Amino acid sequence: MTQEHAALIDGEPLPTERVNAFLEAPYRGAGNGATSHHESAPARRPSEAPSVARQRRRWATQVVVTDELARRACADRGLKVPEEASPASVLAVAETDVADLGSIVAAALAHSPAARALLAALESEQTVPETAVRDYYDRNHDRFLTPEALRRGVTPFDGVAPEDLLPYDAVRAGISRELRKAAGRKAFFGWLDQARAGVTYAHGHEHPGDPSHPDHEHRH
């Protein structure tokens, strides 16, 4: 494999120029454009240490590989494949999403229309049993206290009367959406783990957490 290729995906080359284009995109930090150690797009920083620059390239490679894998998955599923992501169109990633998804996956979803389309398809395929919705409601009374109960300082630890809770029927749809979204994300992670098995990385483009290189770190 030459350095013209950042990786081989099932034996097919992923051009290094796609990683370079992502690295050269305007920097936008996580959430409202604020600089953060969780980044939705890497920036070229001439003064940064070589080890940091190497890790930034590895991180960017993961984002671009995820985009390519998602494009192929969309094609295999017969989904309409969006136009190839423009590096300049990277969206800011909310800190909550970074925390839930990890910086690489959150950035890939912000960068890649194909990844977002695949995630949406996976979410739509999830079935949430009524028992799971009811169980979530019963185990999380703190989330469903009425405004009046909150003003009185009611907490679920003190015992909650039925009138202190929002009716189940009023919140059921919202709970179901939340659980379906969580299940869709879990399915996306499962798909990505399997899809990555067919990827071979060029030297300098390994996963940032790969212990085989001296700069490795495992951070979300």
Describe the protein in words:
The structure is a single chain. With 220 residues, the chain is mostly helical. The chain contains eight helices and three strands. The chain has helices at 16-23, 50-77, 95-101, 103-111, 113-125, 130-139, 147-151, 168-195; strands at 5-9, 12-15, 199-201. It has a three-stranded antiparallel beta sheet with strand order 2-1-3. A hairpin with a 2-residue loop joins strand 1 (5-9) and strand 2. Helix 2 (50-77) crosses helix 4, helix 2 (50-77) packs across helix 5 and helix 6 (130-139) crosses helix 8. The longest helix has 28 residues, at 50-77. Residues 27-44 have low confidence and may be disordered.
The string of secondary-structure elements, in order, is EEHHHHHHHHE
- Please state the average pLDDT score: 80
What's the shape? elongated
The SS-based structural class is: mainly alpha
Largest sheet: 3 strands, antiparallel
Radius of gyration equals 21 Å
List low-pLDDT spans.
Answer: 27-44
Q: What topology, given as strand order, has the largest sheet? A: 2-1-3
Q: Indicate the percent of residues in helices.
A: 40-55%
| Total count of helical runs of at least 4 residues | 8
Measured between the Cα atoms of the first and last residue, the distance is: 29 Å
| Strands, count | 3
Beta-sheet strand percentage?
5-15%
